[in-house]
Design goal:
By secondary structure, the chain is α/β, with parallel strands linked by helices.
Amino acid sequence: MAGTTKGTSMQLHSVELWDGESDRGRVDLSWTRSGVDAVITAVTPTSNTAPTDTSGNGDAASAEGDAWAGLSIIPGLIDTHVHLLGKASDGHADFLGWPLVTRSEEQVLHGLSHAQRALRAGVTTLRDLSADEVQVSLRRALDAGIVEGPRLMVSGMVSMTAGHGDMFTPEAFPIRRQTADGPDECRKLVRHWARTGVDGIKIATSGGVLSTGDKASWRNYTREEIETIVDESHALGMLVAAHAHTEAGIQIALDTGCDSIEHGTFISAAQAAEAAVRGVSIAPTMLINEAIASRRVPVSDEQAQKASDVIVQRDGLMRAAAELGADFVLGTDANGYHVKFGDEMDELRLLAGVVGYSPERALQAATTRAALAIGRADDLGRLAPGFKADFLVMRGRPWENLDDLRVENIVAVVARGKVVAGSLPTA
Ligand SMILES: [Zn+2]
């Protein structure tokens, strides 16, 4: 049962596998490492063991002494919406102030710590949605194998003056991130991020919750500006993620061809149906609003009030949206402060409960559907030949019982074909 090394090839024999789509029963799983990455080479039904186990306890096909009894393999999770650069060490820090007074050389180490926490909690891919040069550097170091961590996808923010991205910097602070107003500046900022090496672009089409002086109800950008950003991003091979809370913000994101909706709080039934038809995913980032509204973390009165306003209507709208086929994917908005890195499984269970997803559909939202949302449907989120060898060994069968999907049930995390947390069971 143990993993055996054949040069750079590894195989697990007779393991229970859910592949990102469905239950494959008992299989032999093989992968090959080359350089710092690894690809699955074969998933074949185990010939000498009955693959069916409908008992739900995962041990019907296991011989006595089978170290894999009650265990299963699922793809590593993908969190499509995080913000890595926040204070990762213990102790108080001002959420908005810390990034302004901390050198980027120091911030990158905190970002790495956050990423590693997520990895140990079963998240093998993260997409940072307010990235700049720091996250690009971190991604390169991870891809080069210099440091260990999850895969990173990074999206650069294009924000208008007084937009959601801009309002994270208090108005009196002299050093500000670049903003873009008018189609020409928008196009130029997209090109700037492309040169920097980002994978995608993030915009806001409504205001937000955590930014100071900002209102979730505010319009962000005109139609012409958004059309320009989407046009230029797509021309340069980048997806556009649109932060939108309001119905107007969601509509303009759909109209202009944005690729994903972030938050999507006040989504209407018609918009849910339209998003489903267009293949636009929605990351509902539920935990963070819960944390802010309930004041589980220190927040300002303004922030708590805005979050409460946001969730009052949210749950009913999102459940209706799911029934109309809206494609909800795992996105936590983790920033290490309001939502911790490693809270992804909690977010997914909350999402499933609110929108009424089955355990299997919920797990797809964090694997195959999340991979599609970030433009990596061809090599992430699924355990099949040609896909990356990123997977989890779990106690239980989370695609049948989502309550099994908890960090404490992780037996091993395998990323880039290598065990990075826990250990593989051995006979
Ligand atoms: Zn966010």
